[in-house]
Amino acid sequence: MRTLLLTLAGAGLTGLVAAQSTVSQLRVENLTNPLGIGTPQPRLSWQLTSPTRNTKQTAYEIRVSPAEASLAKGAAWQSGRVASDSSVHVGYKGAPLTSGGRYQWQVRVWDQTGKPSAWSGPGTFQVGLLSPADWTARWIGPNPADTAGQPSPLLRKAFTAKKAIRSATAFITAHGMYEAQINGQRVGNAYLTPGWTSYNKRLQYQTYDVTNLLRSGQNAVGVMLGSGWYRGNLAWSNARNHYGSDIALLFQLLITYTDGSTDTVISDGSWQSSTGAVRHSEVYHGELVDARMDKPNWATAGYSASDWHPVVVADYPKNHLVTTVNEPVRKHETFTMPKLIRTPKGEQVLDFGQNLVGWVMLRATGKAGSQVRLTHAEVLDKAGNFYTENLRAAKCENTYVLGGTGQPELFEPHFTWQGFRYVRVEGDAQSIATIDPASFTAVSLYSDMTPTGTFTSSNALLNQLQHNIQWGQRGNFLDVPTDCPQRDERLGWTGDAQAFSRTAAFNFGVNAFFSKWLRDVAADQLPNGSVPFVVPNVLGAGASGSAGWADVATITPWDMYLAYGDRQLLATQYPSMKAWVDYMTKQSKTDENGRPLWNSGFHFGDWLFYRPFDDNDGRSAVTDKYLIAQCFFAHSTQLLVKTAQVLGKTDDVKTYQALLDRVKAAFRQEYVTPSGRLLSNTQTAHVLALQFDMLPESQRAATAQRLVDNIKSYGNHLTTGFLGTPYLCHVLSRFGHDSVAYDLLLQETYPSWLYPVKMGATTIWERWDGIKPDSTFQTPGMNSYNHYAYGAIGDWMYRVAAGLDTDEQQVGYRQLRIRPHLDPRLTQAEATLQTPYGQAKSGWTTTNGNVVMNVEVPANTTALVSIPAKSAAQIRENGQALSVPVRNTAAGYVTVEVGSGTYRFDVSK
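Above: the chain sequence. Below: its structure as tokens.
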């Protein structure tokens, strides 16, 4: 018998005098100091920190004032002391805030002893333009009008700021993409703006504080436009102009002077247009930048634009303009000094060591007209040559033509990006005769999500898997959750997003990211309730309604609610959720007993499931697509019932609970034999039937054993695709088969999660065998090496292996559930998470037969901690008998309830 040691110790030991709590991490509508929020009555959040255990908020006080006023004396709204423990999504209840107004705010709290904290440091925010009537700017475009493929237009205007400036705010959007300058300085640090939405229904604008860019007297604003998603090549068959063939700008600058007076600078007929260095730019195909065509200082007041053309004013709508609710795309990690490779074909290739998404910045000196062409790829082939066949039609190349200034010239793209690890350098012999790797810097681009979660273990391959999961999310969360970032696709596939959304919410803060994208899911949802394959939908109305893809309408809102406790997101998405369930109901055939069976229409099924290299024995793991559809029909209906309960829609609870019962009855009638066997004897069929409770309780254990038997028949390998994989290990652990779940997690041969790691992957692959054991490739028609869906195993690693989870009854980690699942093949595993309340942690270590368990619980929360022990008498807290309340002892765990603090337990047999 081994000894199990768990020690409990940490900050805020019992008996210490209570220390004063502090308040920090102020957020408005889930963002820190946001500009351009889209509501006059925002939700406010904050975090408490305290060295004292069991710290809870019992009351709060908020004060909000205009930015120029005193918070203490000039508050526009002061809540007074409010008896409440709420510190997340607390509604502002003052008079509606004004469109474009700037505000600051503070909060203080009282703890469980009645002691108040100091006031927090001030947070700031600005309201956006809340009504179409607030826009006085006009839509303008280049003259002469252009088409996709032509040089990027430059638009400019000189203006005068008449007095001393107190503040200035720019509101900008475009048909296409834009980059703005004021007085030659870039406006903001966001890229690929205005982002990608369902443009004809929802077009985002961005809000910028440009006070520091302006000066009293003469000024100039300049904006460069690119085709982007709006009219550029998207999807296949060279499809273009999905939202329009024009390119246009809407710009509004509000200047507030120190005397309180204001001026507005708007886009209108007084602007001028020309073209510059960017001669061509496409999302898929890259960019051509010719420095000889540059117009130095074109966005400064002293520039002469006498040869520029007047712009064209257009009457495009403004009633679909919406503020940006999510974090923009920004630059992040940089990779310098790549390895220089001379391939067997003689090509010069740079290896940046990481499959990333972004672009390469080049610093070069040479004669005017000298060219350097950079082509991007994810992998080298078996012989070590540059490989681009899997990019399909996407050229993925940027070409830079030197201006010949005699000084180092810096080149980078503006309206495109690439997914790559390797870059081939070509061009004029003079330009590439001697390549200095120090001249090339790769920079990653992705939505500016806050990193929130970590996972580490004693297994180096698992740690690399976690690295790959996070880098797959970085590269594919580029304003929309794309399937892949490199080939001629890069679309917001709904099936990938729903499979990964719970994992995504651990690694990064994605509340705002998904809040934005889910609104486009609802906007592009068909009138009959069907949900497109991709959102924004550029594939057409016929590309919709696939089970497991369209269920993103229900699954991802619920995942966000569990992770962040965002009830408003649920309320916003509820009509979309309900419409999807109603669509499935209408598509179903109902028998004489009222049991609806959804066995019609196109479905992707368990996409990219296991197919052996030699299928002569018929071992392909084919799961009936309609069996899958019925399972997701039930799952979405169940989530709709839960959402209706949260929102207090009691009539819907009754209606859809009755529907759920009938859907499951239809499943059992059609797909389950009297003895309990499933029509499809595959891992995915068993997983979905168990995960979604499709079977009677009496049949579930036997079905779980059949799943185990199936796994063992494949030599402890998985065979699941996109729809079965996210739930596979969860189902095994739920039914007491942790060791089999670990068998799959730690499997190193194909098919498995660690096989790509062993093959050198730095992101998640689209296929289990994207590179085969003999180093040849899967079919190039669909073989991405940065495709995050299979990274959904991360959710099991964090919530089950490490054991850090939230209680579904107190969502958003208001109450933690900590229950690690240990395995002798690991000696350590730990997960940390920045929850809406602060950092939480669950970790365990085994040494010489002993186990140490570490727990951190943030202030204003509680946790149910399940300790692997047979009785409470075995557990010690700093050498003392366990003093925290024991909730139950069952299944090899003692569950205790604790408040905030850090803990480390000792349990001995």
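The chain is about 20% helix and 30% strand.
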